[in-house]
Structures are given as C-alpha cells and as structure tokens.
Write a structure and sequence with these properties.
It is a single chain. This protein is an alpha/beta fold and 618 residues long. The chain has eleven helices and 33 strands. The longest helix has 18 residues, at 400-417. A hairpin with a 2-residue loop joins strand 18 (288-296) and strand 19. It has a seven-stranded parallel β-sheet. 50% of the residues are buried. The two termini are 47 Å apart. 19% of the residues lie in helices and 30% in strands.
C-alpha cells in the first residue's frame, strides 16, 4: 500500500528538490497554489467609517495598491508614510485563480496570508470568514462556503494598525511621524505574500515539525492535521537525499496530531567515521527532501513536499556547538529593509541575493533584527548555508496587553519556523525594549524568564538568548552590545577571561548590568552588536551612526581596528557586526541600501574573517 501511495497517486505532488524559493511556505508545499500578489483595490479609512457603511459589501475602492508592499513604501504605488490607522483592500478572485489553486468539488479553498500588520478582518462576498491579530505571523481562512459561485468572488481585508499603540510588537517602526535615529518608517497592512490553496475536506496536513537526533540517526516528525481521520488514518513519510532513498515509514493516526519516528539506516549514518557526510552546515548545507502523505481507510487523502536538515545546535564549555563541534559564529546584523519596499521583500530573488551577499562578505550567520523574516529568506538560508538568530520585534511599552501580544506572536513564530535547520538561536527580547526597567521591576524579569522557559518548552533543541545586549536572565549565551569605536580599548576589554568576567559581574559597556539571573560561568560570551561605523557614501540627510568615517581609507582602518581586536580575543565565542546595509538615515552598513559594498568584497571578507579564518578549537 505504501509503495502505491508513494508513486502512483496522481494527486501527490512530486518532491521538488527543496523548490525554487518562490513558495510562501517552503516547508509545506502542495502541487497547486495561486499567488495573489499584484494590484488590489485600496482605501484609507481615517474616519473609521468602513464598518458602519459596510464597505465589505460593496468594494468599490477608487485607489489601488500593489500587494504585498506596505502603503508606506514606494513599490506599493501608494507611497504615503503618514500614519493611517485603518486600511481596506479588495481583490477579485477569478476562475483562473481557483483553477491554479487546484479547487474542485470535495476540496476546501484556503486563503493564506504571510503577515498583515497589525490586525486583520477578512470577508469573502460580503461574509466575514476570519480575523487575526499579530503583525508578523501568518494566518489562514477557509473561504469555500463563502464563495457565491464557481467563477470567483471578492476578497475584502480590513487592516488596523494604530501608530500610537506602543503595546503592539512593532520592532523598528517609528512612533514619530518621520524616521529618526535607529527607527524607520512604519509598516501597515499586507506586507508578506497572499496566496490561495486547496486542501482536502478531510484530514489535511496543516503543519510539520522536524527534529533530528544525530546520535541515533533518527528524524522525529510531528504532523498536525486540520481534522482527525474518521477511519483508519495513516501517515506515511519518505526521506530522500538527492536520488538516494534514505527511509520510508508509516504509522497509524487517530487524532489531529501524529508523532512519527523515522530511522535512517543508511550505512553512512551508522558509521561513526562517516555519519557527518549527511549533516547540514554552512560549508555543506545538505538538505533532506521529505514527502508526507495522509491516507484514510487505505485511500490517499493529502500529500505535501517538505525538507529538513540533520544538524544540532547547542552551547557547552563556553563555546557554541554545531553538530557537536565548536563553532565560532561570524554574524552580521540584518534588518531586512529595502528603500523601495521597506521590510517587505522586493522579490523572492532579492531574498536569495541577500543570503548570498551575507555569505560573500565572509559571514556564517545573520541576526535578523527586530523582525520575523519572510520564510523564503529562511529557505535560502537553509539551502545556501547561513545560520540565523531569530529575533522578535518588540513593543515599546510594558503592559498586560503588550505581554499577551508578545507571547502570542512569539509562540506562533517558534511554531512556524521550528523546522528550519538554519535557525540556531532564538532571541525573544533585545536590549530590554518593552522591559526597560527589568533590573528593578520583577514583573518584567518574570516576563523575560517566561519567554525563555516557554521557548524551551516548545523547542529544547536550540539555545535561547533571553535579552540580547544586557540585563539577561537565564540566558544560554552572554550577548554583549558594545559600540566602543577605539580598537585598542576593545582589545583590552576582551583580552582575557578575567577582564570579561569582571565586566559580567559589574556593569557592561552600555552602563547596564549584563546578567540579572542565572549561572553563566560556563556560557559562551559573544559580542552581538558592535561597530556601527557610519560611512555615508550617498550624502544622506541626517546620516547617523555610532562613529563616523570620512573616506574609504578611514572606513577600512576603523573597521580593521575593531575586527582585529575581536579576532585577537581568546574569550569571545562569536560576534555580530552592526550592520549589513544602510537603512534610511542609519548609514552604518558594510554595504549601501542599494547593496553595493562600501569597500571591495574581497577586502571586507578579509577583515571580517580575520587571520586564518578559524579558531584553534574548530
């Protein structure tokens, strides 16, 4: 029965060799889907009249917008950065859309959103079909029963994003009308892909979590179903690496969630001298193709293509470990911001090019700052070999509402991104944003501890940095932010363990305590923000940086001085340089906002990699 399901069912999508990076949900791909990017009807609703006047019944909006670009951005063709709390969108579905999504009798039609900032309500043909709160996380609505005819219908979205609501997780979005210092234009409404997909009416595959155990050569899968099987349900999993079949297994399922253990009895995985040949790493980002199928009473019901990476991430003896081996982390701060599209990606190709650029500059990792990045970026990080620190966008206030919103979005993103091998560290808080008085207010400290413990409850396979920069609680990595511009001072500050231990026990470079609770004596120490040298090649108005360089030579000397100090430190287990690109007035990128390097790539790479490129223990 299993062989028949794996090869002969015409409804089963082929394994896509990890795909081409265009699918909005790259680890759960069906054969048919319809991209709804493009021109939508659009209207601001500054008077909040739309609900009273039932705009969802008659979507005759005079203006338009290019989705998925936020209206503040030029690419949206609205390009209005002023605060607008309420936005309305309209898209007419056609027969072609339904056909491309594989819609037919007996299947349900799902409308999926990558992210809508901040609150969304959705109608189809005048009928409300769902809502979602959280500006950075995905959601779906079933629109099957709301469609009035087989030729299509009308999608209406009302997005609410109040510029003055500082209890919303908002990251780098400015609360002022104009960007200032390290804060940027707001992002409102739809800013990640929208697509249409048909699924079975029965136990459709809703999500998959992959976890790997290198010691036992075993893959653990949790498969979530939209509804439990009604009769003799089974989950079948096939794993392949290239043309090599690694494993097939099948297990019964009676509930809405299945746990499946998949052994990989390949000789190489059983050979202790050769098992690393299948592991994922930045140098060898090997991915395993997966096909997951659901049957009911021996009849195929649903199938998806997925992928995973065999790798482990941990901390031990003051070092970060990848695949049980010490690894020095060479990282760069990535804000994922483009002049024409803001925090929305210009295209799937742009996300690939961003990963390629980071690697070309000599980095093995990126800390995605104050943003839950588009899953297509994570796809390319997985495929091309870039480790990622996943960081939450913060609210600016500490209230019970802010706590609830932060926790909900954080848990949703841990769920969404659980299976990406590129993600090696979780970062729920940064620089005490949203918990400004954590050193004195026990409520804020408990919030930070709760985020750490909740993260570990959901995912025990990755380190957690509790509050990147300072005032950390039970952190797995002591993450220090230090914008000292003098390389000699930096060299002395991180010269030996005694100097660093004195700093950890006292006051950190930013004038705050580095650690509030937890024994960190055996934890790695990393410099996770430093540099920030402004070299304004485009003569930006109100250009800003932590220090400034006046020429290419000056920039190279300043950068080299700091990096020489970092590379000389026997204590640091890794670093994260600020930052990859210029972002609006913040001109401290290694490359401009146009992604053009400020020094030759070879020179930047030499400076960042340092002499020898590896530590003695690597």
């Amino acid at each position: 029965m299993l062989d028949r399901m794996l090869s002969n069912d015409p409804s089963v999508p082929p394994v896509a060799s990890q795909g081409d990076g265009t699918h909005p949900r790259p680890q759960l791909v069906r054969g048919d889907w319809s991209d709804l990017s493009g021109r939508w009807g659009f209207a601001f609703d500054d008077d909040d009249r739309g609900l009273r006047e039932r705009w969802f019944d008659d979507p005759s909006f005079e203006s338009s917008i290019v989705v998925p670009f936020p209206p503040e951005s030029p690419a949206s063709e609205v390009a209005d950065p002023r605060p607008h709390d309420i936005l309305w969108y309209h898209r007419a579905l056609t027969r072609d859309h339904l056909s491309a999504a594989g819609h037919r009798d007996g299947r349900r039609l799902m409308l999926r959103f990558g992210a809508v900032d901040y609150r969304a309500d959705v109608w189809v043909d005048g009928q409300r079909v769902g809502s979602h709160e959280g500006g950075h996380t995905p959601f779906s609505v079933d629109i099957t029963d709301a469609l009035r005819n087989a030729d299509g219908g009308d999608i209406i979205v009302r997005a609410e994003d109040r510029a003055t609501d500082v209890a919303q997780p908002r990251g780098k979005q400015d609360w002022r009308d104009d960007p200032h210092a390290i804060w940027y234009h707001r992002t409102s409404g739809i800013w990640q892909p929208v697509w249409l997909e048909s699924v079975p009416a029965g136990p459709a595959i809703d999500w998959i979590h992959w976890r790997t155990d290198l010691t036992s050569a075993r893959v653990h899968a949790r498969v979530g179903l939209a509804s439990p099987p009604t009769d003799d349900g089974a989950v079948e999993i096939e794993l392949r690496h290239g043309d090599t079949l690694l494993a097939r297994t099948s297990t019964l399922v009676h509930e809405g969630e299945a746990e499946v253990e998949v052994d990989i009895p390949l000789p190489a995985q059983m050979n202790g001298q050769a098992y690393e040949e299948l592991l994922w790493s930045p140098e060898n980002p090997r991915l395993v193709d997966a096909t997951v199928r659901i049957s009911q009473a021996d009849v195929p019901v649903d199938a998806v293509s997925s992928y995973l990476g065999l790798r482990s991430a941990a901390v031990d003896r003051r070092l970060f470990h990848l695949n049980d081996r010490p690894r020095f982390v060479r990282s760069v701060l990535s804000q994922g911001y483009w002049p024409e599209t803001h925090i929305a990606a210009p295209s799937a190709d742009a996300l690939r090019e961003e990963v390629e650029l980071i690697k070309e500059l000599g980095f093995t990792a990126a800390r995605v700052h104050q943003k839950f990045e588009d899953p297509r970026f994570l796809f390319w990080a997985d495929r091309l070999g870039l480790m990622v620190w996943a960081e939450a966008p913060a609210p600016f206030a500490f209230t019970s509402t802010a706590v609830e919103r932060t926790v909900r979005e954080w848990l949703e993103i841990v769920h969404r991104d659980f299976s990406h091998p590129s993600i090696v560290t979780w970062v729920p808080l940064n620089e005490s944003w949203g918990v400004q008085h954590i050193a004195r207010d026990s409520r804020m400290l408990h919030h930070a501890l709760a985020l750490v413990h909740l993260t570990k409850a959901l995912d025990s396979t990755r380190p957690v940095v509790s509050n990147d920069g300072w005032e950390q609680a039970d952190t797995d990595i002591v993450a220090i932010h230090d914008y000292e511009g003098d390389g000699d001072v930096m060299r002395a500050r991180y010269a030996d363990r005694a100097a660093v231990d004195e700093m950890i026990a006292g006051i950190g470079p930013a004038g705050r305590r580095l650690v509030l609770s937890g024994d960190v004596s055996d934890r790695p120490v990393m410099l996770t923000e430093f540099g920030g040298i402004s070299f304004d090649v485009h003569h930006t108005e109100n250009a800003w940086g932590y220090t400034s360089a006046g020429s290419s030579e000056d920039f190279g000397q300043r950068l080299g001085s700091l990096m020489t100090a970092v590379h000389a430190s026997p204590v640091l287990a890794g670093f994260c340089y600020t930052q990859l690109t210029d972002t609006l007035q913040e001109t401290n990128g290694l490359v401009g906002a146009d992604r053009v390097p400020k020094l030759p790539v070879e020179e930047l790479r030499r400076i960042m990699v340092g002499p020898g490129g590896v530590r003695p223990w690597e």
